[in-house]
């Protein structure tokens, strides 16, 4: 039974990394109670069977995927489901009267044709793409207030966009010069097994993948183009690194003037003033993934090169927290008009 006064939350995909992280973080949310954890393949099984770390903390059986039943048990649903699945399921949940925060890429691109080109699935109907609010909290957060449907940004786009947008908006970098070199831990690929994330294939190894083909390219370009007021294209290369959590996005761009690292620090601190989850490092200090692990922080550092006229911007996040479940809860807080930090007060786990 829901505790009186709390918002009732259901999680579809609760047996995946994004879903199980939502369960962890929502344990300490003062205004939310999880009333249903949902699985399409293991309904009826106790969740702690697949996730023994939840023993004594969340002991409930997994429910099946039935939108009408979910609407009877919950007020809001987090869909931590693969792309293609969310596209079909989310409209049914919205029609059942639920609020939705979707963690997949299915509703992030406003143009359905772009979605089909990059994701290789049929796009959701335009009406849902229009309804979806792209929830990059520190940039478009005011759009989330009172919204009923949030499309949570991708992990790589979160790190990348938070690192680039203040400089693009200020007109300090050349939009046609941006190169993004991004690296992710293997949890970014989800809990499913594949040769790509097999221990012997990734341990002591470093792999570049999906060069110029990654589905996050149009998401990054869509947001940068909106901010720049012109079409922006980027070169984007992703790498898999042998760690569990973390994304580092290293971005290179030509500067339009002779800016110093301190200039960038001042610009970004002004842009993110009052936003608790972006930490702009002092001039010359470059953040590492471990410094945000397990937390909702995005840390940003700069190296300006007067010799080449280029700025290097380094942005780090925990892909499952700020890149997925944490930002989803931050979006929930913004939707509901609550304090942005509720349920997110985690100090990074170090070392
Ligand atoms: N991992 C990350 O760092 C990030 C992930 N994302 C996105 O979030 C979403 C979830 O990712 P992640 O948790 O890593 O993925 P996982 O593969 O770990 O989990 C996805 C879950 O979806 C469930 N699922 C599969 N098919 C269906 C279906 N037809 N109906 C309902 N549920 C289904 C599965 O559970 P079951 O079989 O029990 O139903 C599975 O556990 C994806 O869209 C991903 O791209 C976004 C940002 C970062
Ligand atoms: C390490 C790794 O494999 N990461 C995944 C991120 C997937 C993801 O988050 O996909 P959507 O945001 O599009 O839903 C990838 O690069 O495809």
What is the fold's blueprint, element by element?
Elements: E1 7-12, H1 17-26, E2 32-38, H2 47-50, H3 67-73, E3 76-79, H4 85-95, E4 99-102, H5 112-119, H6 126-131, E5 133-134, H7 137-144, E6 149-151, H8 155-170, E7 179-184, H9 199-202, E8 207-209, H10 217-228, E9 235-240, E10 247-254, H11 261-271, E11 278-280, E12 298-305, E13 310-317, H12 321-336
Parallel strand pairs: 1-2, 1-3, 3-4, 4-6, 5-6, 7-9, 11-12
Antiparallel strand pairs: 7-10, 8-9, 10-13, 12-13
Bound molecules: NADPH dihydro-nicotinamide-adenine-dinucleotide phosphate (NDP) and N-acetyl-L-glutamyl 5-phosphate (X2W).
3D structure, described in words:
This protein has 351 residues and is an alpha/beta fold. It folds into two domains: 7-131, Rossmann fold (3-Layer(aba) Sandwich), CATH 3.40.50; 156-319, Dihydrodipicolinate Reductase, domain 2 (2-Layer Sandwich). The chain has twelve helices and 13 strands. The strands form two sheets. A seven-stranded mixed β-sheet has the order 8-9-7-10-13-12-11. It has a six-stranded parallel β-sheet with strand order 2-1-3-4-6-5, with helices on both faces. Helix 7 (137-144) links the parallel strand 5 and strand 6 (149-151). Helix 1 crosses helix 12 and helix 7 (137-144) runs parallel beside helix 12 (321-336). The longest helix has 16 residues, at 155-170. The protein is globular. The model has no long low-confidence stretch (mean pLDDT 97). Bound molecules: NADPH dihydro-nicotinamide-adenine-dinucleotide phosphate and N-acetyl-L-glutamyl 5-phosphate (X2W). The site of NADPH dihydro-nicotinamide-adenine-dinucleotide phosphate has 30 residues, from helix 1 and helix 12.
